[in-house]
C-alpha cells in the first residue's frame, strides 16, 4: 500500500495537531508504523489523550481514499514531510504541517526570497493601493509574494504580484476546492495558473474560523519576512507577525494614520521594533547579500501601470539591474579639474557603469572602505553624485 495513504490517514485523524503528529513520526519513523502501533506503544510515543488513542484505532481508509480520489480529480498534489519538495524552511517551524495540498506550481521555497504580505480585511484605500504597489515592486524585483487570499490587503497583495507578471502563492484556511471568499474565484484561478494554492486541509474542508490562525503559521513559516499593512490591534495579521517572530523571521510594517484604528496594529509593531517600510528597497536591502542571483532592485518606479522590468537572471549589483527604470535624462559633463585622484576614480567608474553599488565601487576603484565612504560624502556635498536606496550611487542631475 502506498505510503501516501498513511500520511493522509494520520493527518486527518481527529484531534491530532502538528505537534503530536511530529512526535509520533519522530518516535515511530513513519506513518505506517504509527498505523500498526499498539495503544501501549502510542502512549509511550506522545502525550495522547484517551480520545486521541481511540481515534488512532480507527484503521479505515474510507475517508483517506475519498481524499485521494478528490485530489486526483482536482489536479491537487500532496507533498508530505518525507518528500524532497517539502520546504526545509517550513519543516523547521513548531507544529509544522505533516503534509501540504498543492494546486499549481509549487516553488522551491528554500531558494526563494519569499515574503508574506498580510493586513486588514477592512482596509482603507490607502492600505489597498500601498499593498498592491509594494507587492508589484517586490515581485518585479524578484521576490515571491505570499498571502492568504482574503478580502482587503491579501487580495491587493496577490493582485500586485500578478500585475508584475510574477507567480504568487495563496495559503488557504480551507480545502483547495473551496473558494473563500467566493468573490475571489477569478483571483484564485489566476494564482493557480502561474503560482500555487496551498493548504494543510484536504478537499472538502470548509473555511472554519479556527483554521485561519493555524494557517498563519504556514504563511510566516514559508517566508523570510512578514509585511503587515493596516492592522487593528485585534487583527489576525498580528498573529502572523507573532508567528514570524517566534520562527526567527523578519517583521516589517507600513506606517499608517496615528488616529486610524486600522493602523494601530502596524504602528504598534513599528514601536516594538518592526522595520518601517515605505518602498520595496526597505525590505529587499535585507536580503540582497544572501540572494544576489534572485533580486534586482527596482527604484523610482513612478508609473505603476507600466510593464514591469522583470529579469530574474540579472545580478542585483550590476548596473543593468536598475538602469532601465531610473529614467534619468542626459547627464551633464563632469569637470575633472579640482578633483583629487580618489574622486576621479569614482567618477570614472560611474561614467562607465551609470549606476553602481558601493561594494562594486570598492572593487573597481581599489580604494579602502573608509576612503570610499569619505570620498562619496564629499562628492555628494559637491552635488556631483547622489545616493539611491540600497547604497547605489549615480550622477546628480542638473536642475
Main sheet makeup = 9 strands, mixed
Q: Hey, roughly how much beta strand do the residues contain?
A: 5-15%
Give the helix proportion (percent range): 40-55%
Order of helices and strands: HHHHHHEHEEHEHEHEHEHEHEHHHEHHEE
> Count of DSSP E strands?
12
Spans where pLDDT lies below 50 across 5 or more residues: 299-303, 306-332
Average pLDDT, all residues: 87
What CATH calls the topology of the largest domain is: Rossmann fold
Q: What is the end-to-end distance?
A: 75 Å
C-alpha-based Rg, rounded: 25 Å
Structural class: alpha/beta
Assign an overall shape.
elongated
CATH class of the largest domain: Alpha Beta
CATH architecture call of the largest domain:
3-Layer(aba) Sandwich
User: So how many helices?
Assistant: 18
The tally of structural domains comes to 3
Major sheet strand order: 1-2-6-5-4-3-7-8-9
Task: Based on the model shown, name its key terms.
42% helix, Arc Repressor Mutant, subunit A, 18 helices, Rossmann fold, 9-stranded mixed sheet, DNA polymerase, domain 1, alpha/beta
Amino acid at each position: 500500500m502506498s505510503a501516501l495513504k498513511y500520511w493522509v490517514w494520520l493527518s486527518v485523524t481527529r484531534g491530532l495537531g502538528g505537534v503530536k503528529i511530529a512526535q509520533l513520526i519522530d518516535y515511530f519513523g513513519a506513518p505506517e508504523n504509527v498505523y500498526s502501533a499498539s495503544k501501549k506503544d502510542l502512549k509511550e510515543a506522545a502525550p495522547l489523550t484517551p480520545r486521541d488513542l481511540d481515534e488512532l484505532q480507527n484503521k479505515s481508509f474510507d475517508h483517506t481514499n475519498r481524499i485521494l480520489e478528490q485530489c486526483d480529480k482536482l489536479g491537487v498534489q500532496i507533498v508530505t514531510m518525507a518528500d524532497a519538495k517539502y520546504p526545509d524552511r517550513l519543516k523547521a517551524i513548531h507544529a509544522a504541517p505533516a503534509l501540504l495540498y498543492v494546486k499549481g506550481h509549487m516553488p522551491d521555497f528554500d531558494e526563494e526570497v519569499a515574503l508574506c504580505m498580510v493586513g486588514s480585511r477592512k482596509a482603507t484605500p490607502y492600505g489597498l493601493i500601498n499593498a498592491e504597489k509594494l507587492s508589484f515592486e517586490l515581485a518585479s524585483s524578484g521576490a515571491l509574494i505570499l498571502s492568504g487570499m482574503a478580502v482587503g490587503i491579501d487580495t491587493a497583495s496577490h493582485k500586485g504580484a500578478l500585475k508584475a507578471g510574477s507567480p504568487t502563492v495563496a495559503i488557504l484556511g480551507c480545502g483547495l476546492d473551496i473558494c473563500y471568499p467566493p468573490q475571489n474565484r477569478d483571483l484564485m484561478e489566476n494564482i493557480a495558473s502561474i503560482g500555487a494554492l496551498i493548504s494543510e486541509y484536504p478537499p472538502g474542508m470548509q473555511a472554519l474560523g479556527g483554521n485561519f490562525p493555524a494557517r498563519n503559521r504556514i504563511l510566516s513559516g514559508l517566508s523570510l519576512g512578514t509585511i503587515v499593512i493596516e492592522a487593528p490591534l485585534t487583527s489576525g495579521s498580528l498573529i502572523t507577525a507573532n508567528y514570524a517572530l517566534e520562527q526567527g523571521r523578519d517583521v516589517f510594517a507600513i506606517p499608517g494614520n496615528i488616529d486610524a484604528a486600522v493602523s494601530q496594529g502596524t504602528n504598534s509593531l513599528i514601536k516594538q521594533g518592526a522595520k518601517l517600510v515605505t518602498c520595496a528597497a526597505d525590505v529587499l536591502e535585507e536580503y540582497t547579500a544572501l540572494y544576489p542571483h534572485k533580486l534586482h532592485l527596482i527604484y523610482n518606479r513612478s508609473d505603476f501601470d507600466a510593464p514591469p522590468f522583470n529579469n530574474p537572471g540579472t545580478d542585483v549589483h550590476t548596473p543593468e539591474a536598475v538602469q532601465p527604470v531610473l529614467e534619468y535624462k542626459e547627464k551633464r559633463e563632469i569637470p575633472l579639474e579640482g578633483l583629487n585622484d580618489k574622486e576621479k576614480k569614482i567618477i570614472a567608474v560611474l561614467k562607465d557603469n551609470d549606476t553602481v553599488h558601493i561594494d562594486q565601487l570598492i572593487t573597481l576603484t581599489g580604494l579602502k572602505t573608509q576612503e570610499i565612504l569619505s570620498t562619496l560624502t564629499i562628492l555628494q556635498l559637491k552635488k556631483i553624485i547622489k545616493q539611491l536606496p540600497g547604497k547605489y550611487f549615480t550622477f546628480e542631475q542638473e536642475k
